Amino acid sequence: MALTKEIQGLQGVLEATFGSHQPYNDTRGITFDIGRHPDEDLVEEWHLTTPDQGPVVYWGKFDAFSRGREHTLDWDDIDLHITRIRRAGDEGSPQFAKFIRLQNDKAPSALIAFAPPRDSVEWVAAYKSPGYWNVLREGVQPFVWNLPRVSADDPSNRRSPLQRVTITFRVPIAMGELIVSGPSEHFRRPVTENGGPHGPARNYSFCIDDVSTLLGQADSSTSPIHWHLELKPEGRPRP
Description:
Elements: H1 2-18, E1 24-33, E2 42-51, E3 57-63, H2 75-78, E4 81-85, E5 96-101, E6 109-118, E7 121-128, H3 134-138, E8 140-145, E9 162-172, E10 177-181, E11 192-196, E12 199-208, E13 225-232
Parallel strand pairs: 1-9
Antiparallel strand pairs: 1-2, 2-7, 3-6, 4-7, 5-6, 8-13, 9-12, 10-13, 11-12
């Protein structure tokens, strides 16, 4: 019991120290695999993390996607796997990306430590998100994402460590066509088809080349990404 409290205290210290201190920049590719059933909902995040301050990057941050109170997740639910992608020339040396759990009541959150640090680190977080798309399977589901932001005392002029992101919704063809309302047409990419983890699938991708254009005023509480998703079974006309 004493050890558990000590670990929880350490997690709280790490969250307070590193949670909002993000001296790095991040480019992401996020793929949401929408399953036929709640236990088939998956997320894969590709990251390219580079230093914003200093010559190398020592850590990154992971925050599991959640829908808040209606969709609670804990560490046993997500089965998180972190993989660091080796660069050319690094084949002979160990390359680690290890996660350290942080204290966060909203959803699983972790510090991703890089050993050794580099001027850029490419890594992937793959995890389960059971029931994330439950509402979509029954009707129209909002997709809301409050983009990560830096702390008010950050020495850079950035609003967020996230610079560029591509969001892909991968839907089994058998589930029908996905209608995404809300994003700028400038973000939308052509629909493609491939084999997903649940069989043949369509990919609906949206590329935001400059995240700062979505953030609005410094004191804005508006969610920069607030879209609506709806599945149309095959053969049903679009609205």
